[in-house]
Design a protein that fits this description.
The relative contact order is 0.10. Strands 1-2-5-6-11-12-13-14-15 form a nine-stranded antiparallel sheet. Strands 3-4 form a two-stranded antiparallel ribbon. It has a two-stranded antiparallel sheet with strand order 7-10. The termini are far apart. The chain has helices spanning 111-117, 126-131, 205-214; strands at 3-16, 19-32, 36-37, 42-43, 48-58, 63-74, 81-82, 92-93, 98-99, 101-103, 133-143, 147-155, 164-174, 177-186, 196-203. The protein is mostly beta strands. It is elongated. It folds into two domains: 8-162, no CATH class; 163-223, no CATH class.
């Protein structure tokens, strides 16, 4: 079963421009696990590292605004570039019977080594390593802690997948229920994420427990 490691910190008692603010920061490494064999070879599962931060400011009792940003990187080895023969096939080392690497490093390594190696093994060097980092940023506005408006942007380098899109959304909270809607607007034509609508229905168990404590049961008297 894949493993997740996460760390988050929150600073609540903070004032910026005389406004009550909350600063959050977190680091998560998800999907840590052994390789999976789809055929005769074993492949890495997509272990991912995400580092993010956020700032929320309460302008008054009913209006709040927040900014968030995070960076993501796959912690799997980047396939190397192999030396080619005159016919275009991979050159083979006759002594080891393995492909000859021209640029980069071998990706046939254990999981833990592959996670560390993913930071410096790109065939294109540091420039390519930077291209493997995805960036996401967005803002969120809440009114009376019941209605939210959101917008954001996600960027992935074209040579590493090319997912680039804006995101707009709405949120509603009523009692212990919450409904969030998001619509993706790709910035490239014929994107598989085009016209994608996502929605999430949530239930606040802590608020539900609090309501039960405040509501007296039948046959009892409220204090």
């Amino acid at each position: 079963m894949p493993l997740t490691l996460a760390f988050i910190t929150k600073v609540k008692k903070l004032e910026i421009a005389d406004k009550k603010s909350i600063v959050t920061a977190g680091l998560a490494i998800t999907n840590i696990g052994t390789k999976i064999s789809y055929s005769t070879t074993k492949n890495f599962i997509p272990t991912n590292m995400r580092l993010g931060a956020g700032l929320k400011m309460d302008f008054d009792e009913v209006n709040s605004f927040a900014l968030y940003a995070d960076v993501n990187k796959l912690l799997v080895p980047t396939p190397p570039q192999y030396l080619k023969t005159a016919t275009g096939s991979d050159s083979i080392d006759t002594q080891t019977n393995s492909k000859i690497i021209l640029h980069g490093m071998s990706s046939d390594v254990p999981v833990a080594q592959g996670m560390v190696q993913s930071f410096y093994d790109a065939p294109g060097g540091g420039a390519e390593e930077l291209k493997e980092i995805n960036i996401a940023a967005g803002f969120e506005y809440w009114y009376a802690k019941q209605f939210a408006v959101r917008a954001g942007y996600f960027y992935e380098n074209k040579s590493k997948g090319g997912r680039q899109f804006f995101n707009i959304g709405l949120g509603v909270r009523y009692s212990v229920f919450g409904l969030d809607l998001a619509y993706l607007i790709p910035t490239t034509l014929r994107n598989p994420l085009q016209n994608t609508l996502r929605f999430t229905l949530s239930f606040d168990f802590d608020a539900f427990k609090s309501q039960n404590k405040e509501t007296p049961t039948e046959g009892t008297t409220a204090p």
